Amino acid sequence: MTFFSLLIGTFTLRPYVFVFLLAFWFCAQRLLGWRRTGLFFLVTWLTAFLCEFSSVRTGIPFGWYFYTEATAGQELFIAGVPFFDSLSFTFLLYASYCLALLYLLPARASGDPAPVNLFQRSTWPALMFHAEVRTSWPVLKLTVLFFTFIDIIIDPVALRGERWFLGKIYYYPDPGVYYGVPVANFLGWAVVGLIALSGYFLLDRRLSPPSGHVHGADQVMTGNVLLGCGLYYGVLAFNLAVTFWIGEPQLGMTGLLIFVPLTALFLLRLLGRLPVPLPQPLRQNSKGPSPPLR
After folding, report:
1. Do residues 179 and 156 make contact, with C-beta atoms less than 8 angstroms apart?
2. Cα–Cα distance for residue pair 6/56, rounded to 1 Å
3. Measuring CA to CA, which of 45, 53, 202, 259 is 20 to 30 A from 143?
4. Could you give the CA distance from residue 85 to residue 76 in angstroms, rounded to a whole number?
């Protein structure tokens, strides 16, 4: 088959992946701008592909696993790795990044006590998109944590792909203790997130500051950050729904128990009930009076 035929086959076999991918491009360009979005995509995709290429040959960093290539004549593979699989890391890392930003970006105080109403935008913290914070070490660590967390839901249900429309696309020669998934796999996800986001942060710092009302550093970016958070919970809901649909209630309940505390914290932050201190680099670099932060 030709390259384009295989690419079309990739789209038709995995339409849900490309729905999430389109959502990523829509959300990310609003927050980061097109240039940064393109760099985020390229750095993450390349990192994920190289790590998968390595792991199926050396076991590093995900541990040993193998693709069955049952769909090798129907979708695009690159050096034995399904094209769609590496693409998935891009929107998952971006969604995790936005969730970390929600917790750690400084917020401009309104001056009045916030009403307890999630459906009023005035209730939400007015998040400021400061470069010193958005590329900081705390954001990197929290993003990697959220990125690894979501694979706790994704990988076990993907491993059971023969029971839903994904298909049996890979297997572990030595099944792990967590619903057949080895611990090394989750460590591999942390490695991918750490390398990819560190690389993107280096590039972000070298670019000129964002400008304009869409992604300006001095503009309130709460809505655009929340779009990325919505992508995170959209992927989470999709995988949990499939988990229960294929008859894995224990696995589904495990996922719910993991994410209920995180969701509670998410709602508290959205209500402005979780104060975030101003990071030290921002204190040192700030000039003149600045609005109070909460």
Report:
1. yes
2. 22
3. 53
4. 10
